[in-house]
Amino acid sequence: MILPAPLLRSGMELKIREAVLSDARLIAAFNLQLAEESEGLRLEAATVQAGVAALLKDPAKGIYYVAEAEGAVVGQLMITYEWSDWRNANIWWIQSVYVKPEFRRAGVFRALFNHLRSLAQARKDVCSLRLYVHAENTRAHESYQRLGMTRTPYEVFELDVRQNGGPRPSTKPCEVLQSPYEN
Questions:
Q1: Distances in Å between the alpha carbon of 37 and those of 32, 76, 100, 173?
Q2: CATH of 3-163, one of 3.90.470.20, 2.40.50.100, 3.30.750.24, 3.40.630.30
């Protein structure tokens, strides 16, 4: 689905669409930049590329949405799914949020988020949107709150089972699968 949305500051139009396999290289590049900017991590490009391609080939894993301005992808987000037996519905987790620096504060993420919210509200099997954010990323916290999201009382714990239960390395992601709590 293509959704036109005016950019707030420039009058340029955005198109929001589901990502396709040909977007994989750019999405992976955005994810590498995201990890470095938000957490100071240098991820292995081949692992990220493989992870993005795996998701794009298998919608059961999740879906990427991209925002295009004048035919160029300028932002992205990904959703993955969590089944809630308490609610008898899916929770869509928003992940891998990235907007090119020159398009930040121009309504790109808002357009992506609003598109996702509309899709979720139109479905009976989705009960909420959730995301996790690095504790020190206060700019992101403010953006999410402006969109109506609220903090929850939950915290995230993780055990990387491919590292023999030890501490997770800070600069090397899992080799095959990506944790749902990482970008």
A1: 9, 15, 11, 16
A2: 3.40.630.30
